[in-house]
Amino acid sequence: MITLKEALTKSKEEIATLRVELEAKAKESGLNAYIGFESSGEGVPILIKDNIQVEGWSVTSGSKILQGYIAPYEATAITNLKANGMMAYGRSNMDEFAMGSTTESSYYGVTKNPYGTDRVPGGSSGGSAAAVASGIAIAALGSDTGGSIRQPAAYCGCVGFKPTYGRVSRFGLGAYASSLDQIGPITQNVEDAAILYDAIAGHDPKDSTSSQSECVSIAQNLNANRKLTIAVIDNYISEASESIQKAYANTVKALEDAGHTIVHKNMQNTKYDIATYYIVATAEAATNLARFDGIRYGRRAEGKNLQELYFNSRSEGFGDEVKRRILLGNFVLSSGYYDAYYLKAQKVRHLIRDEFTAIFDEVDLILSPVAPSVAPKIGSIHDPLEMYKSDMYTIAINLAGLPALSLPVAKDDEGMPIGLQLIGKAFDEQTLFDGSLSLEQAINYIK
Ligand code: GLN
Predict the structure, then answer these.
(1) Which of 11, 195, 372, 417 could be stapled to 157 by a disulfide with Cβ–Cβ 3.0 to 4.6 Å?
(2) Which residues form the domain of 303?
(3) Distance from the CA of 214 to the center of ligand 1, in angstroms?
(4) What is the pLDDT of residues 172-184, one digit of tens each?
(5) Is residue 145 within 6 Å of ligand 1 at its C-beta?
(6) Which residue has its alpha carbon closest to ligand 1 atom 10?
């Protein structure tokens, strides 16, 4: 598959031919990565997760409740793509409302991992990652609330980047947890991620949380020769599988050999990451999803009166995981428990952020695993808590609003990709990309 950088140099005719080839290849692949083929305008085709609005396209967030809903306006990220020689092309599969780590909860069925079709591609942007990894998309957009770009990228051996909170407009992104959500690229390599990120980033008056701070082109200033100070979090790593620990140790060595300085740190609050995230995220999700009542958007169920219509629409329209999170979110926000859970979680969120800030006073980047294991088998995770635990390395980054990039560094004995992430300082995407490019070159991962 040609890279995004190469594709941007092709003629209109070559791109049109490529689009036809991509569609045919995707249909043959049997991965269920695409849930629809649509295209909008001219340019290099970019696969779009099913929770990002493209005007006139169906957008369902992988949910039955949004069947039939057509986006009445366009996400700013899509408008920005078009202004930079790209176009929205095709819908990728995802966990329902971006809640999940496996892309098994979609109304459209499970997406498969191209490295082993009995394995999940990760989630929630699993369709985007599986498509890029299998050469049926040049590059894709995903969204990351607690790891949903980085983790599927790691499971599928591609690059996934979650920008600093506020860098990419959330206007037109289906809200899961508004204080955590960011749109970002899933690509074949680090440079393509920088190109796609440059295209979609920037201030947007339509998103009040969008940052006013200046966005300078990352791709044009990429420099793999900077020597950086990189922290490794020693107490973080012991819960990862043996193969991940081995890949981590080799990566630390490769970074040292490339001239970077490694410093060893510990983080005290990591044990609170999962609880804090699942309180904040579900509270915001319960609030955001209250709008899906069967009246305003998408699918409407039968009902003798308004109460029954709401009840039936939500009961039939939402899947189990989404219902579980709405219940949990309403519980932690209820007057009796608000102080004990939601307020406490907000305080702990500050502690988590402060701990990152203290480490970043001394270092440029932090290296961490993305997930504690490689992609699990389809259908193997039955306990929701077990699934939540697999987010242990990604969610703190969203709670702290930091940028992080996941890239493949090795494969395990069964040939499954292992990804690690570099975490950067807020709004210092340049250093993060420079370090990531250096690591990509030092590791020379073979697909
Ligand atoms: N797996 C996490 C969750 O289910 C993260 C999802 C995401 O980033 N959208 O909440």
Answers:
(1) 417
(2) 270-353
(3) 28
(4) 999 999 999 999 9
(5) yes
(6) 99
